[in-house]
Write a structure and sequence with these properties.
The chain has a domain at 77-167. 40% of the residues lie in helices and 10% in strands. It is built from six helices and four strands. The protein has a four-stranded antiparallel beta sheet. Helix 2 runs antiparallel to helix 6 and helix 3 crosses helix 5. Bound molecules: zinc ion (ZN). Residues 123-155 form the SWIM-type domain.
Length: 187
Amino acid sequence: MVGAIPFEKWELSHDGGRRYGIMTTNMSEVFNNVLKGAHSLPITALDQLTFFRLNSYFVVKREQGANRLASNEEYTPYVDVKIKANVVKAESHEIVLYDQIRGQFHVKTNKGTKSSSTRGRTYRINLQEYACTCGKTLIYGFPCSHILAACHFRTVDFRPLVQHYYSTQSYYNSWAPLFHPIFNVYE
Ligand SMILES: [Zn+2]
């Protein structure tokens, strides 16, 4: 039923540029890591181990999600840290407005840093399209420090740039499905 699945879900060339040039398979590596040490087991034991490990993983993550919902955290732990770090970085960017109607800027990074290899890099921002030439906002689904600097400059809310799957509700929903105990397996 490949025809029923949209192209962008399985073809890098149709994903709107989000993963352009990225050819890794990190998700399968992550899953392999969860099952570390289990590959040499007989199939039934492998099944059971996979089941119990996944259940433990879901229990921990579900609780983390519930706690974050209860404390009104807006985003997943990963993105929360990244956005806060980008907000701090944005404070040191130099920003120049070119067109207030279209929201065009250039943003220069690492002002005054002489040793860094990224010294003085300049990026173009189009705030109307939420676009930055660094490409990170499109690839990662949350705002780069350059766009955050422009948003701050124009008092524009950056939240529409954070993809819905990074919300705490999505995080909780991902881990919400329950596993049910297996009983009497050896009888
Ligand atoms: Zn950028």
